[in-house]
Amino acid sequence: FPELHAAVPGLPLASSRVLPGIVLRRDFAAYCPTDGELRALLVTEPLRPALTAPGVEFVVDSEGQYQASLRWIATRTEALMKHLQSNNVKLLLSSVKQEDVVIYYAKLYGVSVVECLSSEEMALVSEITGVSPYVPFGDNMDREITETAVVTFCQPLLLVSKRCVHVGFASVRAFQPHCLILCGPVDGVNEQHAAALQEAFTMLQQLFKTVDQ
Predict the structure, then answer these.
(1) Which among 129, 159, 136, 124 has a CA at the least distance from the CA of 38?
(2) Sorting pLDDT into bands at 50, 70 and 90, what band is 63?
(3) Residue 181, strand partner residues
(4) Cα–Cα distance, 175 to 128 (Å, whole number)
(5) Rounded distance, CA 61 to CA 178, Å?
(6) pTM of the model
């Protein structure tokens, strides 16, 4: 329930509504508008390529070596974004903050990015779509990316002064997520309404479990 409702203080209760899909409480780090169905990728680690393996020290002896390292990183990052584009990936949902070079090439190749998502939000997306987080595969850029979720829409959403991301997923189960936008004059009223609604949903869950048995 916490991931399927958003409390918006400062608006009358009558402004409350139910939206299809889910609302992520983050703004786009990169937004590239697109029409129709698209593919999304979940990531839990930085996509900027590392210069060395974990635990291995990398020593730069000159400015030339440093600049060469930056060029290598940029080239590898661009190649990755090209690969995502060729696999029709248009949205990255990341639990970590991505570096500027990743955001730059994401914008260049038309890939929207939402970063710093909570573990609960990532788990909800995985549950809806049946997709696990993507693991980069080093130098192998030819492998087809299969860990993608079908997104029916992806757009910015402004809740008073907070910028959010509104996403619709094609669910692999009967569960079709909707998000409750709960409005009220102050936070305290919203919290009371949210608690009452959660208790009501819990009661309905128990009732349907009893009927099923």
Answers:
(1) 129
(2) confident
(3) 6, 17
(4) 7
(5) 55
(6) 0.81
Contact 3, 61 (CB under 8 A): no
Q: Give first-to-last CA distance, the chain, whole Å.
A: 24
Cα(47)–Cα(98) distance, integer angstroms: 7
Q: Please enumerate in sequence order all residues whose Cβ is within 8 A of that of 184, keeping only pairs 6 or more positions apart, or say none.
A: 7, 8, 9, 11, 12, 13, 16, 190, 193
The structure tokens 């757009």 sit at: 155
Mapped onto helix, strand or coil, the DSSP state of residue 7 is strand
Helix (H) or strand (E) holding 22: strand 22-24
Question: What are the CB-based long-range contacts (under 8 Å, 24+) for 62-68?
Answer: none
- 8 Å CB contact between 30 and 111: yes
Burial grade of 116 (CB within 10 A; 0-12, 13-18, 19 or more): middle
The structural domains of the chain, ordered by start, are 1-21+177-212 (no CATH), 22-173 (3.50.7.10)
Token pair 């995502």 is found at 84
Which span out of 2-6, 63-67, 97-101, 138-142 was modeled with the highest average pLDDT? 97-101
Work out the burial of residue 155: count CB atoms within 10 Å of its CB; fewer than 13 is exposed, 13-18 middle, 19 or more buried: middle
Q: What is the mean pLDDT of the chain?
A: 85
